[in-house]
Amino acid sequence: MIKHIVLWRLKDHAMGASKKENAEKLKSLLEALRDTIKEIKLLEVGINAEASPHAAVAHGIVPPATLAHPCAADVALYSEFASWDALAAYQQHPAHLKVAGFVQEIRLERHVVDYEITS
């Protein structure tokens, strides 16, 4: 089993939209890949709770000291694939490449971790 994890920090404004709007659009685009790319075994997308800091603090989700942390990512992708070949097929799929083009326009940073679970 291959685990593919990606974290993005987004621009405050890009493509005529706010960071929050672009985070929500990215989440929707990525989740739609589940129905398009057969190699995806599992795909989860999360938007950092810091995107709405006052609500997060009020509900006890995020302690006030962690708000606007300079290392915080805005969007996280967690996905699983049966093999390295399946991950490569996902990464080369036209639907994924379309989402990647959108990401290129809205991101400040991208961090990726790919690893294999053998047990």
Give descriptors for this structure.
119 residues; alpha+beta; Alpha-Beta Plaits; two-stranded antiparallel ribbon
Report on this structure.
- The protein is an alpha+beta fold and 119 residues long.
- The protein has a single domain (2-116), classed as Alpha-Beta Plaits, CATH 3.30.70.
- It contains 4 helices and 6 strands, in the order βββαβαβααβ.
- Strands 4-5-1-6 form a 4-stranded antiparallel sheet. It has a two-stranded antiparallel sheet with strand order 2-3.
- The longest helix has 14 residues, at 19-32.
Describe this structure in a few short sentences.
The chain is 35% helix and 32% strand. The chain has 119 residues and is of the alpha+beta class.
Our estimate of the beta-strand percent is 25-35%
Whole-Å distance between the termini?
9 Å
Taken from the alpha-carbon principal axes, the silhouette is globular
For the sheet with most strands, the description reads: 4 strands, antiparallel
Number of domains: 1
> What does the radius of gyration come to?
15 Å
Q: Which CATH class?
A: Alpha Beta
What is the fold's blueprint, element by element?
Layout: E1 2-10, E2 13-14, E3 17-18, H1 19-32, E4 40-47, H2 53-58, E5 75-81, H3 84-92, H4 94-106, E6 107-116
Antiparallel strand pairs: 1-5, 1-6, 2-3, 4-5
